[in-house]
Specification:
Helix 13 packs antiparallel against helix 14. Strand 6 and strand 7 form a beta hairpin. The chain is elongated. It has helices at 12-21, 34-45, 51-62, 77-89, 104-107, 113-119, 130-137, 151-163, 200-205, 216-226, 235-250, 259-275, 283-294, 301-311, and strands at 67-70, 94-97, 109-111, 126-128, 141-144, 165-168, 173-176, 184-188, 207-210. The strands form 3 sheets. Strands 2-5-8-1-9 form a 5-stranded parallel β-sheet, sandwiched between helices. Strands 3-4 form a two-stranded antiparallel ribbon. It has a two-stranded antiparallel sheet with strand order 6-7. The longest helix is centred in the C-terminal third of the chain and has 17 residues, at 259-275. By secondary structure, it is α/β, with parallel strands linked by helices. The chain has 2 domains: 8-210, Rossmann fold; 216-311, Helicase, Ruva Protein, domain 3 (Orthogonal Bundle). Bound molecules: adenosine-5'-triphosphate and magnesium ion (MG).
Length: 315
């Protein structure tokens, strides 16, 4: 069934993939050493990642197994996943944000209805989609929020990862992965309501890597890395931010703040300080910035307010 294609530029599907996706998958030098990757992640991606997470992810790739990053919102799953796929493959990965109605036509390919009507279901009317493009370009795929997809879709993805090939029956073609760059990272947030359970078959095949809120010192480093040097966040304000977040994460909030909120809070406080003509973020700036960033639901208002007052000594 498979055709021999020695010159990529002569294959119509590969030409289409290059034309549509070539730009988004610009090559770079792969970084396959975990210790070096940790440095590049900090310098280039402004991400602080535990070397064990990098090593485990790379080990899974070497074993041909997909990875599942699982943990609460705002803990870096998506950004770390994208960055690691890029460093491993030496190309930017494709991002598939999942939803209920995602299917193989949306990720492997479909047919242009008008062209198909005139010319039939063939290579001319075929539109390659991201999963097939990733396989052909030897790039990684980040499948975001996998619990939002159907079980059929999950099984289809696992089959592709397992066999490292994609069959398009209408074209009577099999596309095979060319190198080690085609890898898949799934992300999932088990606490999110109204989401599907992951099947046993799925969990058996993936390497699951849990994500969690970082330790205090690491979160402080992340905030420094992601905020401006001016107006300055002194250690007093920094400790109040970190302490408040810790308390809120242990509380009964419906939307617990992640590191994403830690960064957003610090940056909002800095912006307020700047508007108020201050060179150092004051307690007032930090307090004023908090509610807007930390409260996502009306029902959380009271808890956030009381924790803030307590931590800021206003109770
Ligand atoms: N390890 C980290 N290093 C640097 N920044 C981080 C890290 N973890 C989280 N962040 C901050 O959190 C933001 C959001 O991260 P990301 O979207 O990847 O989280 P997520 O776990 O995918 O969240 P969600 O479950 O809501 O999709 C980043 O833009 C960054 O500001
Ligand atoms: Mg995410």
């Amino acid at each position: 069934m498979e055709m021999a294609h020695t010159h990529p530029e002569r294959d119509p599907i590969e030409a289409k993939v290059a034309e549509i996706y070539g730009d988004v998958a610009r090559p770079r030098e792969p970084v396959r050493s975990p210790s070096l990757a940790v440095k590049v992640l900090e310098r280039e991606f402004r991400l602080i990642v535990d070397e064990r997470i990098v090593a485990l992810t790379y080990a899974a790739f070497m074993n041909g197994r997909p990875v599942l990053f699982e943990g609460p919102p705002g803990t870096g799953k998506t950004e770390v996943g994208e960055a690691l796929l890029e460093l491993w493959a030496g190309r930017k990965p494709f991002l598939l944000p999942c939803s209920e109605n995602y299917d193989e036509y949306k990720v492997i390919g479909d047919f242009h209805p008008l062209i198909a009507m005139r010319k039939g279901f063939n290579e001319e009317s075929f539109i390659p989609r991201p999963l097939l493009a990733a396989l052909i370009l030897d790039a990684g795929v980040l499948v975001d929020e996998i619990r939002r997809s159907s079980e059929d879709f999950q099984n289809m993805l696992l089959d592709v990862v397992d066999k490292r090939r994609i069959i398009v029956p209408e074209l009577k073609r099999v596309f095979r992965a060319r190198g080690p760059g085609f890898q898949v990272i799934f992300t999932s947030n088990p606490e999110d309501i109204a989401q599907n359970e992951l099947s046993d078959a799925f969990l058996r095949r993936v390497v699951r890597i849990p994500f969690d809120y970082p330790p205090r010192e690491v979160e402080a480093r992340i905030i420094r890395l992601r905020s401006d040097s001016e107006p300055r966040l002194d250690s007093n304000v920094m400790n109040l931010i970190l302490g408040t977040l810790e308390k809120l994460r242990r509380s009964g909030l419906s939307h617990k703040p992640g590191t994403a909120e830690a960064v957003a809070w610090a940056r909002m406080a800095q912006a307020l300080a700047r508007l108020r003509g201050r060179s150092v973020v004051s307690l007032e700036d930090a307090y004023d910035a908090a509610m807007g960033v930390l409260v996502k639901r009306v029902e959380d208002e009271e808890i956030v307010d009381s924790v803030l007052r307590e931590e800021f000594g206003l109770a």
